[in-house]
Amino acid sequence: MKVQIKEIGADEAAVEEAFKLEVDGYPADEAATLETLQLRARIAPSLFVGACEEGPSSTAELLGFICATRVSDDTLTHDSFTKHEAGGASLCIHSVCVKKSHWRQGIALQMLQQFVASVRADPQGVKAMLLIAHEWLATSLYKQAGFTLVGESPVVHGSLKWFECRIDL
After folding, report:
1. Do 91 and 54 form a contact (C-beta atoms < 8 A)?
2. Contact yes or no for 137/108 (Cβ under 8 A)
3. Block mean pLDDT (10 aa), the chain, length 169
4. Which of 29, 74, 88, 152 could cross-link 158 (Cys pair, CB 3.0–4.6 Å)?
5. What is the value of pTM for the model shown?
6. CA 82: distance to chain centroid?
C-alpha cells in the first residue's frame, strides 16, 4: 500500500484521531497525551503530518502520523519535547505512529521518507533531524529511513532505554 503524507496540524479532528493512534500504538508510559499532541499541532502545525492511502480509490482514513518541533539544541533533551523554536536548526521528531491494523506494511518507512524528503527540499534553516527510539527501531526502521544511530540518549521517558538518531542535512 502506498501512502501520501499531508499537513494535519491545523485540523483539530485529525489531531484527535492521531491521539487515538498514539495511545493504541505506544505503551501507556510512553504515549503523548492529547494535550501534548494538541500543543505540538498548535505551535508547529506544518510539522504535524498524517498519512492516508494514495490513489483514486483511497479513503481519508488516517493510517499514521508524524509530529515534530524545532529547537536550537544540537541534541535531544527532555525540554525538547515541550518547546518549539521556529528558527531552531534541529527538527525533533516526537512521534512516528501507524494504525495497528496497518503495522508491518511499510507505512512508517514511507511516511519517514516523504517527511525527510520534504524537509530536505525546503529546509528553512534546519541543519539536522533528530529523534529518539528504542534500539531495535533505531537499528532497523530509522536506519532504513536514513538516520544514523548516535548512541544512548540521556532522555528518560517510560521504562526502556532510548537511543538518539539523526540525519544531518
Report:
1. no
2. no
3. 92 95 91 94 95 72 95 79 87 95 95 97 95 88 95 78 93
4. 29
5. 0.91
6. 14
